[in-house]
Amino acid sequence: MSYTDIAYTVEGGVARLSHNRPEMRNAESQELLDQLDDAVRKATADPAVRVLVFDGKGEHFSAGHDLKQGAAKRAHFTVEERWAYEELHYLEYALRIWDCPKPIIASVQGACIAGGFMVANMCDLIVAADDAFFSDPVCHTLGAAAVEVLIHPWVMGARKAKEMLFMGGRMSATEAYRIGMVNKVVPRADLETETFAMAAHIAKAEPFALKLVKRSINRTLDAQGLRTALHAHFDTHQLSHVTEAFKGARDRGLANAIKKAKE
Questions:
Q1: Residue 124 located in a structural domain
Q2: How many structural domains does the chain have?
Q3: Nearest CA among 111, 32, 43, 41 for reference residue 66
Q4: What's 250's domain CATH number?
């Protein structure tokens, strides 16, 4: 697969997978998600890669799903068509990030919203610039039950997850660090240097040991119900798409619905 919506490089045992639509605030188009998933598979299979880094070109990590493309191509999907599309592009792709046997670091600046929040928080570690913010406003903007993969309570705790989703607001990088969702906050100018220093240090460890300890920690979360909960929410999320609130947002235009909710 040739990459247009992401950039992929490997150096010093670290694969860099970059959202590469800066003119669109790195909104995650179908093409971007397909290419990102292909790159995750590629890096996983490459014995020269020990650590993966996800980041975004330009001012933002990602503004979330590409709603303009969604409105143009999928607004009138049947229940079955939407379910199949979202199961592959959102649930399965997200779990492939989570299940990657190699450590993955998200390097986040600017906006990390909804689908972007989902991708970043499927990674093992997050390094955030001091201008980064996190948000999932879709209960307010689209009448939908959060994004497709409800990782929120697992990375920020139930009360903070409810606050974010009920209020539809933003969480700063500083607050995300305070509650343990983010591992490190650094000045924007130092984000790349700090992220790749962390990646290089991790890459010195024995790959099989990293694989085993990541598996054990993820299995601990699975024993607590993480995977069952994610699948359960995905099914529930699909109900959002047949509500009158969502159909109203769709008919007004998803971008217009978001603008109106913000006002």
A1: yes
A2: 1
A3: 32
A4: 3.90.226.10
Query: According to the model, what pLDDT value does residue 260 have?
Result: 54
Nearest to 113 by CA among 83, 73, 140: 140
The CA dihedral of 106, 82, 139, 177, to the nearest 10 degrees, is -10
Structure-token pair, residue 131: 């201008």
Identify whether 99 is part of a domain. yes
Amino acid at 258: I
Judged by DSSP in three states, 138 sits in: helix
Q: In Å, how far are 74, 90, 154 from 236, measured between CA atoms?
A: 19, 14, 17
- Residue 216 belongs to a domain: no
Identify the segments of the chain with pLDDT beneath 70: 254-263
Residue 175 has what pLDDT? 98
For position 47, what pLDDT does the model report?
98
Residue 214 lies in a domain: no
- Say how far apart CA 182 and CA 160 lie, in whole Å: 14
Beta pairing class for 104-108 and 111-113 = unpaired
Q: Which domain holds residue 190?
A: 6-209+224-262
What pLDDT score does 257 carry? Answer: 60
Pairing, β 170-172 against β 184-186 = unpaired
Q: Are 137 and 168 in contact (CB under 8 A)?
A: yes
Residue type for 177, please?
Y
Strand order in the sheet with 170-172: 111-113, 133-135, 170-172
